[in-house]
Amino acid sequence: MNDIFNIRRFGRYLLSDIKNCAAGYGLSMALISLTGLIAYIITAGMSLIITGTWASPELEFRIAIFLVAGLVLFTSMPAKCYGGITEKRKGTSWLMVPVSATEKFLSMVIMTVFIVPLITGGVYLAADAVICTIDPACGKSLIGAGSEFIETLMGIPEEVKNELSSLPALKDIITQMTNPLLYIDDIIMVSLSFLLGAVCFKKAKTAKTFLAIIVFSIAMGFIATPIIRSMFPDLINPANINMMMTDADLNTLFDSWLFRNAALIDTINDTIINLALMAGIFLRIRTLKH
Taking the complete model, does pTM exceed 0.85, yes or no? Predict the structure, then answer.
């Protein structure tokens, strides 16, 4: 067991991994963390130059920038921090580090899924909160807007409830699928996908990972379509679709086992994919040779 996992040895290696990743990706991480501040300065500066007035970026624009920054982080970090293991010189040195494959794997996953995103996201949101505290024209901070958005998702407005009074099954599905916690495993899936691409592909790691995800999604669509057609022939068949438009028929459809357990099925599906991705990463580490 000591050869597979030793807590003290793993702790030392994790600290070393943090330092190495910071050396190779620290500058990019800092720029991503400050993307919101940079966009704020550019927008306000352009407003001063063109109109002579001070104007902060709209909340929608700041949300879009935050999402883009997150996408850049998740897709670029694995290749920058761990892409070197597929190169002969760096990879050979990495293989010779006296820790087990399990410890290297755990350090990779912890860094990619938790440490780097949490630090970068924390700095980004903190900078945005400071800006909106100093500048009243900024409006709501991303943290405040996010909290309100989550509260809205967690509770269906009364007017929506009244509209869905004849479709209680649909109301239950909306309640399930608007829970923000349901999508945490999807974010983890993105991180693990690009980590697997970083340790498997030798060149163009990010681009090839994007391509692999697209091909996988298309393949899953081909597999899922006939299953859905067989489960809901009345919904798919144009000749019968008008028969499904009554509230009673729609409620029967949404009250089916598949829809009633949509959140559970989604969680199980994402968990299986995440476990498969982690297994692929671990096997790549175990079998890597130069």
Answer: yes
